[in-house]
Design a protein that fits this description.
The protein has 437 residues and is α/β, with parallel strands linked by helices. Helices cover 42% and strands 15% of the residues.
């Protein structure tokens, strides 16, 4: 089924495109609100999105379009995105092509050209793997991150297995995607598996796939993550959460570079670049017998440790600016900045939740404040010299507070809570059970 999603704040344009394309595709979905894009993608599963570059008459920078392009490619990299832009913004459309757009159309548009471009987008790269796109790494200027950058630029072009370590919220998943982007496999796909969210009984089916009839609900053949990552990168997040008795199965697959689907006895060759990540002390787990030593050696040819935010505080202003732009686009806010006093205080916080906590603080301030300049009170910051009773001091308490706050903010909508926290629904449910929420 061919489904087209059209995103433009001009309702006349939406009507015109829908009328033009309704006889050429099976479904045309329209919206004037770009913030509804994630929901509409999940509901209608479009193969092509026609995306306007600007959504507010007072702001014509094109940043909104580039942001939503990146979001679409992050959510569903297989979707072809055609950009809609004014003649004056053609250079921005070209920039959009560099980060994943399939084509662009200049307004005012010719009906025949628009229709042909959209039809071509449905057939573009059919059967081929789609290059994964998404937000790029913000390295910052801190010495700690510059050392990481130098190491990444050296090892990314190789096929060496990489283990990324660091506290929760330091951006290990984003670094994995940056390594893939800089690798020789960047034209292929990066598959991500949250090892902390995989149900043990479905571990083999999830990673290796299954054939029809392998078990009760196996109504058709299914490719596993190893197979779909063939030619690209397989990112195993939270590798330290993999139960000991399943580690041997994973090790065998990595050593032999072959997999066997559940219910089959035919080996399948795999060609993947492996990246793993963890916030756990794997050497300590090896010493305690909780993690296989041979698997540990297999996955960490190169180890890259991401520093916590407290060790790269000079990068906080750049991160805050990036998050301000992100949520200004999402919540349709005019130009917003942060006062010097607030920025100074942001730079002195401990941030036990690291970049993820900082991002949530910025998002919350953007939601609750209607001022163009955010001050100290908008961020609910505490004096770093004081010891406030009841202040969350552990990562666990910070995580629990973040979850409960997100649940209240999104009125119990667990899909939105998971999106807000940057985790899968299954991981969210695991944490709800863990903390008794």
């Amino acid at each position: 089924m061919k489904t087209l999603l059209v995103v433009d704040d001009n309702k006349d344009v939406l009507s015109a495109v829908k009328l033009l394309m309704k006889s050429k595709v099976d479904e045309v979905v329209t919206t004037p609100d770009p913030s509804s894009i994630p929901q509409l993608i999940r509901k209608h599963k479009p193969q092509v999105v026609l995306l306007d570059m600007n959504f507010r008459a007072t702001i014509n920078s094109g940043n909104e379009g580039l942001y939503w392009l990146s979001e679409i490619k992050r959510i569903a990299p297989e979707i072809a995105v055609v950009l809609f832009t004014a003649y004056a913004d053609v250079s921005l459309a070209v920039e959009g092509m560099k980060i994943g757009a399939s084509d662009f159309i200049v307004k005012p548009f010719d009906n025949t050209v628009l229709a042909e471009t959209l039809i071509n987008a449905f057939g573009r790269d059919k059967g081929k793997k789609i290059k994964s796109s998404g937000p790029k790494m913000l390295w910052g200027e801190s010495p700690a991150m510059q050392q990481v950058r130098m190491l990444v630029e050296r090892v990314a072009p190789t096929d060496a297995n990489i283990l990324i370590t660091g506290e929760n919220g330091t951006g290990k998943d984003l670094l994995a995607r940056e390594i893939h982007r800089l690798s020789k496999r960047s034209d292929a796909h990066i598959e991500t598996v949250d090892m902390g969210a995989v149900i043990e009984t479905l571990f083999e089916s999830e990673l290796y796939g299954h054939v029809k009839g392998a078990f009760t609900d196996a109504r058709s053949d299914r490719a596993g993550k190893f197979e779909t990552a063939h030619g690209g990168t397989l990112f195993l997040d939270e590798i330290g959460n993999l139960p000991y008795h399943l580690q041997a199965k994973l090790l065998t697959s990595l050593q032999q570079r072959k997999i066997v689907k559940v219910g089959s006895n035919i080996p399948i060759d795999i060609d993947i670049r492996l990246i793993c990540a963890t916030n756990k002390d794997l050497p300590g787990m090896v010493a305690e017998g909780a993690f296989r030593q041979d698997l540990f050696y297999r996955i960490n040819t190169i180890t890259i440790e991401l520093p916590p935010l407290r060790e790269r505080q000079e990068d906080i202003p750049s991160l805050v600016e990036m998050f301000i732009k992100k949520y200004a686009a999402i919540y349709s806010r005019p130009e917003v900045n942060v006062s010097q006093e607030a920025m100074a205080r942001l730079c002195t916080q401990a941030w036990p939740g690291n970049i993820r906590q900082l991002e949530h603080a910025v998002e919350k301030a953007m939601i609750l404040s209607d001022r163009s300049q955010l001050g100290i009170t908008d961020f609910d910051l505490h004096d770093p010299q004081s010891n406030i009773s009841g202040q969350a001091t552990t990562l666990e308490s910070m995580e629990r507070n973040a979850i409960t706050t997100a649940i209240k903010l999104h009125s119990g909508n667990m899909s939105e809570v998971a999106r807000h926290l940057g985790i899968t629904r299954q991981t969210l449910y695991n944490k709800l059970r863990k903390y008794g929420i």
